[in-house]
Structures are given as C-alpha cells and as structure tokens.
Amino acid sequence: MRNCPNCNNIVPNRIIIEGKTYNLQKRKYCFECSPFKKHNTKQIHIHKEPSPNSAKNYQKMTKEQKKVFNKISHLYTKRRRYLRKKKLVLENGGKCIKCNYDKNISNLCFHHRDPIKKSFEINGHSIASKPWDKIKEEVNKCDLLCFHCHNDIHYPDSLDWKNWNL
Predict the structure, then answer these.
(1) Which of 23, 44, 89, 118 could form a disulfide with 112 if both were Cys (CB 3.0 to 4.6 A apart)?
(2) What's the CA gap between 111 and 97, in Å, rounded?
C-alpha cells in the first residue's frame, strides 16, 4: 500500500467491488481524489500556475509582452496551417487531379464535388482551428485541384474571355 500524492490517504493494492477483484497496483490516487472507473489520469497533485505569457494572462501583459506573444502565436498558427495542409495534400495524391500540378502547395486547393454536402470551406482558418477528424471528413468530400483548374470549374464562362465583346 502507498499514499495518495494529493491528500496522503492510503491507496490499496487490491479491492473487491460487486464480487470482482481489481488490481490497483498502478493506481496513483485514492478513491476520493480520483473516483473508480472515471479515468481521471491527469496529475492532480501538481498545481501548475499558468505561464506569465499565456493567453490567460494577456490582459495583464505590457505592450511589449503582447507584441512578442502575438508574434509567437502567429508563427505557431502559420506553421500549424502549413503542416496540416501538407499532410492533407500528401494524403490526397499530392497533385492536381486534372493537370498533375505539384510545384507549389499554395497553389493547390480542395474543391467540393457536391456543394450541397459542404459543411465548411477548407481554408487556412478552418485547417488551423477545427478538429482534425472534422477536417478529414470534409476533405473526403473534395478533389485536390490547382487554382487554374479550380477556377475553370467555377467560372467556365471566362474560358472564352478573348472573344468577349463588351
């Protein structure tokens, strides 16, 4: 038997509940701090103060601290967008399905096959802020196209622009 690191109560090695014996040798906390079968696995006994430069303390920051915080946040979000888009593009063939363009990832986009089934647009904001499973679900409704082919689909009347008489 050992003591709970949070309240110092005894943590048993085994317990019998409803006639069934449970091995608790790996259990860290007593039943008061972490109720049985509630899957509370975070470290309860460690009380972390938020970092002085966390978003929770933004209002208390000086102008200079806010500048640094905003710059770091922007760079983090930009990197997250790029890495997520790269992963999505590679998982969907890595090139335009119509013309095989693959030179610049910024020129590749996701075109919804059926606009009626579209839940949200796949763009930098949605890639960075939405849960990964929702993004994957939405990308499965799309084709990977370069912007040229994408515009040809959305603006077919503009293909014959040289013959326009306005």
Answers:
(1) 118
(2) 11
